[in-house]
Amino acid sequence: MSPLNRRDFMKTSVGAAAALAALAPARSYGANDKIVIGVMGLGGRGTYLAQKFAERPETEIAYLCDPNTRRFSRARNAVEEEQDRSPKLVQDFRRILDDKNVDVFINATPDHWHGLGTIMACQAGKDVYVEKPLAHNIWEGRKMVEAARKYKRVVQVGMQSRSAPYVHKAKEYIKSGKLGDVYLVRVYNMMQHPKQADTPDGPVPDGFDYDLWCGPAAKLPYNPSRRWLNQWEYSCGPIAGDAVHQFDLARFLTDDIPYPDAVSQTGGIRSLKDGRDAPDTQMAIFEYGPLTMTMDATLWTPYMKKIPAGIRDSDQFPKWPFCSTKVEILGTEGFMYFGRHGGGWELYDGDGDLVHSEYGRQADKEHQDNFMECVRTRKHPTSDVEIGHLSVLPFHIANISYRVGNRRLQFDAATETFTNCDEANQYLKRQYRPGWVVPETV
Amino acid sequence: MVRQRCVRSMLVGWVLVAVCCSSGYARWLDLGDVKVRQEPTELGGPKTIIEYDLKDTGITPALPAYVFLRYSKDFGDTWQLMPTDYLQGNGFGIVEKPGPKEVIWWGLGQTGVADLGQVEVRARAMAMARVPGGQFIMKSLPGAGRDEAKRRQPNSAPPLFYMARYETTLAMYADYLNEVGGEGAGWNRRMSREDRCGIAQNSDHTYRVVEGRENYPVTYVSWYDAMGFLQWCGLRLPTEAEWEKAVRGGLYLDGDATKQQPNPLPERQFPWGNEAPDANGVYRCNFDGEADGFSHTAPVGSFAEFAGPYAICDLAGNVAEWTLDWYSTSYHAGLDGFRVVRGGSWMAVPVACDAVTGATQLPLKETSIMGFRGVIGVIGPIGPMGPIGPITK
């Protein structure tokens, strides 16, 4: 029997809470009522989500929001191809929150705006679809959970793998004991990222409200080559941002173990020496009692490839040794390769023979379906805000470990603080710019 | 059914009756009657001579015509581009002055055709602008100022190239579809939308332009559709550097070889200068809203007065233009690379129609705000396909 089943879950475990939570109905949705949506953040992901929700017959996009007006036309065009209503284009997301007719708020901004955007949306009575990683830091993630609970909002996190049927099949398979006792899960996030160009800081382009874009984060001098993803001010790093999908899958497959007891890591900036803050190499160990999770993360390994588009939604497996985003699950009786992005899974027995496999499909649509269903039924969605918090939290800890010199950090779940390193505790929370402060009481 | 305004050539003695040209489609230049005849040679078999009269007095070395010829050996079922390596004369490729033109095609053996009477020829021409080789001030980084992968180093000194003066029009694109389209490659249903495009498919899979829309830029074309059309012409998409140089002009408008004409505004924000597109109540390009006179796309050349330093129209606004450049972003490693799209569109805010803003789009994407234009360069591996072809006087 898997040691996981004997774990004594904390009260905050979503497994206990999900079925019982009753979220306040926002309003009664009649059969013909369209659910009205505002989208904050019109980069690649925001534009994609705007289009997908515009395609749905039961929703319409009323607002498209980005501080950079140059982003309007691509998103507006994508939306107008799918729905009759012409969305309003705004730079300030508060226009969306002030509009009582808006039901749902989609937050697809860089990491530093996930927290305040979601919290303010909950305060304004909107349900929220917020992209991963949930929050810029651990404290902010907890505030987002508190806001969702206090205002009884449906908050879905963009960890869409959880909604994929092939993932659920894998979980059932593991639960049935066919891998034996699982003591080790290896999570991979290895790929090639580009170096940032070396250009001087420059003037803010016309039509871009850079101050608003920075929001709660420090307003660093504008530089067109600086990628927000690589800077601590705006992000929890490109590794955390991407690996959270695989790690969430790993947690789901091992029954949503909530908190690590300790995290160690080693790494740094080895190859992409271009002025970034976030490491390009992170080898981390997450101790979850008898279960150990590891992360192998590199951004300078070109032979490691994300699963190609042609394989994701077809009956094929990736080349496992060179798969950027795989999870390996090791039990006393079996071994499983697991691929994100619809990569499927393969199970090998004690003799190393393949005994079972399942192809996969990506689950963006199912995830959006689940969110919309929960908006109507007021149930917790598949990737509820608290799940999002617990899945990115280990990465925040790994990043903090890096920032205090690659130390092993012990974590107390009840207080969500470090017990063996005061220096680390200062990184639980960020400094907020005046006017954009996340309050202690949301 | 508008299929082609051409007559199958027939061998009458040594003279072939007038062949087709696609005059009547807006923005192909008018080549008048194109005559095809044969002349015997002493030792090499007959040579084919294609003659036409380029009457447009506006054709100059700075604003030449690009002429390309296509032929069919199977009574118009399939067509090929006449390979310029086998052509001589003054009537193909870049043509720099008006007057009678001649193309000599030594190709009977290569065509594999025993009887030239089976061959039909179509000659088409488009208006181009000459962009001399040399340095320019390239301010943009690919992808709206975020250089993700630097796969293609921006070249701020492109060699000589010629760019289409106008965005590819519905008439031109429909002509292409009718020649090669068949069951729908290159066309999609959204193209029949009259407000945002205007090419409808007939029940026999031929195509017609909605009346009055011939001079509007083609939209709902993917990057592959754009490349398909341009390869059909013997052209290619511009690189980002070429596109940006067309807006700003080189440091010397006559090029680095002569350096006689310094560019008064080498870092201009827009093709016409630095005034905003709507400054002082004057509308200089087609951007978002109707104040500029157009709620959606405008006929190409509607803002010719505000064309760039090389008289190339609608680089700012109207439709955003596909370029050759692409890269993959960190988030999408493993997926086919995004392509760079430049110039803003009829839906863009005015500032997005400037010289440096770039957008990115997946190459299969077909939207109402994207179109394209073609370029031809000198011999040399400018594009990924290698040598482009000769320029002739």
What distance lies between the first and last C-alpha atoms of chain B, to the nearest angstrom?
A: 37 Å
Helix content of chain A: 25-40%
Number of helices of chain B: 4
Kindly report the oligomeric state of this protein: heterodimer
Main sheet of chain A, how many strands, which sense, barrel? 10 strands, mixed
State the low-pLDDT regions of chain B, or none.
1-26, 142-152, 379-393
Cα-based radius of gyration of chain B, to the nearest Å:
21 Å
Q: What global shape of chain B is seen?
A: globular
CATH architecture of the largest domain in chain B: Alpha-Beta Complex
Q: Runs of chain A with pLDDT <50, length 5+?
A: 1-21
**CATH architecture call of the largest domain in chain A:** 2-Layer Sandwich
Summarize the structure.
The complex is a heterodimer of chains A (442) and B (393). Chain A is α/β, with parallel strands linked by helices and 442 residues long.
Helices, strands, pairings?
The complex is a heterodimer of chains A (442) and B (393).
Chain A: H1 14-17, E1 35-40, H2 44-55, E2 59-65, H3 72-80, E3 88-90, H4 94-98, E4 104-107, H5 114-123, E5 127-130, H6 138-150, E6 155-157, H7 165-175, E7 182-190, H8 210-214, H9 237-253, E8 262-268, E9 281-288, E10 291-298, H10 309-312, E11 326-331, E12 335-339, E13 344-348, E14 354-358, H11 364-377, H12 385-403, E15 409-412, E16 417-418, H13 422-425
Parallel strand pairs in A: 1-2, 1-4, 2-3, 4-5, 5-6, 7-10
Antiparallel strand pairs in A: 7-11, 8-9, 8-15, 9-10, 11-12, 12-13, 13-14, 15-16
Chain B: E1 11-12, E2 15-16, E3 35-39, E4 47-54, E5 65-72, E6 80-81, E7 87-89, E8 93-95, E9 99-105, H1 108-111, E10 120-131, E11 161-164, H2 170-180, E12 199-201, E13 207-209, H3 223-233, H4 240-248, E14 320-327, E15 338-342, E16 358-361, E17 370-371, E18 375-377
Parallel strand pairs in B: 14-17
Antiparallel strand pairs in B: 1-2, 3-4, 4-9, 5-6, 5-8, 5-10, 7-9, 10-11, 11-18, 12-13, 14-15, 15-16
